[in-house]
Amino acid sequence: MNTAQTRQHTMMLNMGPSHPAMHGIIRLVLELDGERVVNSDVEIGYLHRAFEKSSEQSGYLQVIPYTDRLNYVSPLINNMGYSMAVERLFGIKPTERCEYIRVIMSELSRVSDHLTCIGASAMELGAFTAFLYMIKARELLYQGIEMVTGARLTISYIRPGGVKADLPAEFEPHIRNAIKETRKILKECDKLLTRNRIFVDRLKGIGIISKEDALAYGITGPFLRSTGIDYDVRKNCPYSVYNRFDFDIPVGTTGDNYDRYLCRMEEMEQSLQIVEQALSSIPGGNLMVDTEGREIPAAMMVDLAKMGETEGLIQLEVDLDPTLQGGTRKYFDAVEAPEKRAVLPAKEDTYGNIEGLMQHFKLVMLGHGITPPAGEVYQAVEGGNGELGFFVVSDGSGRPYRVRVRPPCFPIMAALPLMINGGFLADIIPTFGSVNMIGGELDR
Amino acid sequence: MILEKIKEKFLDDVLETYEFRGDLVAVIRKEIICDLMEFLKTNPALDFNILMDLTAVDYLWQERIPRFDIVYHLYSLAKNHRLRVKASVDEKDPTIESLTGIWPIADWFEREVWDMFGIKFEGHPHLKRILMYQGFEGHPLRKDYPVTKRQPLIGPVN
């Protein structure tokens, strides 16, 4: 045998941007030596839709529908992060009941996020049953979310100053039942997967990342926790009312795919516990606050003057601005009833009475919407994949001057070559599946 | 405490420090960015070990000179505190030192800022576009890039 004469050369392979086993459009340029990955390059940007540029073009409230489309598996968490950033610009705090509703909805989203991630990556490894079971559980949670928000994905439910609407009466029994069913399904999937020889062989010891690398790459979420670091925004920098609930942060030891799978499985159970605790301790009361932090009573839509309370209202001559560009804003404080709501009125009010219609019109017209004071805040929330940060800069006008999203997937994708280089080509599939890459937030 | 430590160490190179809504901010001269980051990362009392975010803001509409701010968000896992560092960069010389030697994640973040704002990071190993394609003209998040402008997609080069 004369091996010295055999020519050694590697092969270039494009994986993606459209590949059946890649959820999301992303291109991996691989250099292969046989089945081994020698080198790799990650190319992103195929789903870039100029979220940040579009956010600068319209008012603060019109950004919310765009945030739905960032991480489209858990849109409620994005809504919450953005709304909290705007609220902090105003320096206001939402009401107690609103905070609890936000926590419940975020945790339901987190569970549906993890269900999708594990289900899809199990399916790619051949475990189709687990995928169907998990999507069944997600469907039950989605039904609950739909009951409250009126939509399954493009929900725009959480807004600065409050939430769109209160929980309907049938929500609690439905969600309690859904939690019971989800637990049952998780148990079944646990039996199907956790000790399954094929599944374990494909995950264990694959896609390892060390603690040091994970920190250097700014990785957060289940990915960082699988390496043994218990960083979770909900525990480390508690926002909303998370410090009132009793829950644990699961951590792994080796930082491989199997640990990430176990972390996500346990996190779902912890999230379900938070939902249960929140449901049993949710206080009553008002839902929304105005831009000065005062609570708005639920039935407060009819003009006070109509009810005969004209005291304190001033009669003013106003020069109307024909362009309707907000030039008359300076008169508002003097003319209006002393209510400055930040949240769009319920659709029933918008279509049902003139005050609601006027409120809605004014909030969405250019120059008439809410105007936070000049300043900038960075608000982090725990998204499905890690720290989701919103950096909002205000120049004191009706539009955000700059909205920046720190997507949790972005650092993980930057570190992906560390995990796949040196491994087999087939091992990219479980590693990539455990990232739960969401193109919407990665490319914005 | 954090802001005092930075002022003590870097004196006049720290232009301004303030707190807004609980966020600590230090505005610095861009020349010291690498020294400052190295100091923030290695000083045991500060211990900022994670670069959470790196982005830029274009202040063209406010007619401010210098035009750009590079914004760094740092987090310390051990001390559980956060800090925002801002360094101004002017339009005439849109360059700043790269942090790739300190945090590898700065690689992708800086590529994004280059792509969106056209700010060059000196010492970056391969500063190329990340979200837009090669051959795209202009930097879309600059305030003077029209939002309605369209460019035909010519596809990636390679």
Notes on the structure:
Chain A folds into two domains: 308 residues, Cytochrome-c3 Hydrogenase, chain B (Orthogonal Bundle), CATH 1.10.645; 73 residues, no CATH class. In chain A, 44% of the residues lie in helices and 12% in strands. Chain A contains 18 helices and ten strands. In chain A, strands 1-2-3 form a three-stranded antiparallel beta sheet. In chain A, strands 8-9-10 form a three-stranded antiparallel beta sheet. A two-stranded antiparallel sheet of chain A has the order 4-5. In chain A, strand 4 and strand 5 form a beta hairpin. Chain A is globular and about 95 Å long. By secondary structure, chain B is of the alpha/beta class. Chain B has a domain of 98 residues: Beta Polymerase, domain 2 (2-Layer Sandwich), CATH 3.30.460.80. Chain B has three helices and seven strands. In chain B, the strands form two sheets. Chain B has a five-stranded mixed beta sheet. Chain B has a two-stranded parallel ribbon with strand order 6-7. The longest helix of chain B has 12 residues. The mean pLDDT of chain B is 86.
